[in-house]
Amino acid sequence: MSITPPQDQDIAEQRIKPRPKGIYVLPNLFTLAALFGGFYAIVMAMNDRFELAAIGVFCAMVLDSLDGRVARMTNTQSAFGEQMDSLSDMVSFGAAPALIMYEWGLKGLGKLGWIAAFVYCAGAALRLARFNTNIAVVDRRFFQGLPSPAAAAVVVGFIWVMDDAGFRTVSEIPVIAWTAFALTLYAGLTMVTNAPFYSFKDVSLKRSVPFVVIVVIALGIALINIHPPIVLFGMFLVYGSSGYVLYAWRRMKGKPASVIATSTDDPDEVGLHR
Predict the structure, then answer these.
(1) Are 268 and 140 in contact (CB under 8 A)?
(2) pLDDT digits (tens, 9 = 90+) for 64-97
(3) N or C: which end of the chain has fewer CB within 10 A?
């Protein structure tokens, strides 16, 4: 019977003991910046600067769309980054839009106002939790339900348009207050539906594209600059209803409306279509 010397045993334990993993700085900087955008939006809403609050959420959207791409391009994906991204999304696209909308237009509706804001906030939390658990079985070309950044854009985009038009005390205007109520409920509930929303994930930045595509992108940027509040709100409002249109079209064509493992073309989804 052989006994391992204590010195050799200590060396073996040091070799087996896993080293603590560090945190990748670059992608998490974008995530933290997106989180700051949501926090900034809340602070601005508390100070009745609703235009700046809306801009803060839209900036958070841009930064949120970059952190994942930066992580993939630099090969710095990590489980920590995924969790950090989800928590940041909950603040910037869940809590922030709900609080901003409540302060701007729902406070005058009493209990119905904060209930609508809570439905939106809960919908964002459920949407993010379902996305994290279903990511391996959902067709990557589509989102299952309205993504939380787009829902936030619908809510704060409406605030931005109304604020730009001079409506800042909407509790005194029942039509706008109830419109805000309906829009908040619509965005919150649409996040937890099974309606398919195009994800644009099959659009690769590394592929060559026809020259006309660059021209269209330039025209889109110019169009947004004409009047950012109305153009951005209009774009996301159309996108926010596109899932229901696609769902109805698939039903009419007799195709499966669910986005759970409906793509048989993606090699990453082999074995998910049994």
Answers:
(1) yes
(2) 988 878 877 788 778 888 889 999 999 999 999 9
(3) N
The terminus-to-terminus CA distance of the chain in angstroms comes to 54
Say if 2 falls within a structural domain: no
3-class secondary-structure state, position 150: helix
Phi-psi group of 21: left, alpha or beta (phi > 0 → left; psi -120 to 50 → alpha; rest → beta) = beta
- Whether the Cβ atoms of residue 259 and residue 196 lie closer than 8 Å to each other: yes
Quick one: the chain helix, strand, coil %, rounded to 5?
Answer: 70, 5, 25
Report the number of distinct structural domains present in the chain: 1
Task: Compute the distance between CA of residue 113 and CA of residue 116 in angstroms, rounded to an integer.
Answer: 5
Is residue 209 domain-resident?
Answer: yes
Residue 146: which H helix or E strand, with range? none
For residue 164, which amino acid is it? D
Phi, psi of 134 (to 5 degrees): -105, 10
- Decide if 199 is inside a domain: yes
Per the structure, the complete domain to which residue 212 belongs is given by: 22-269
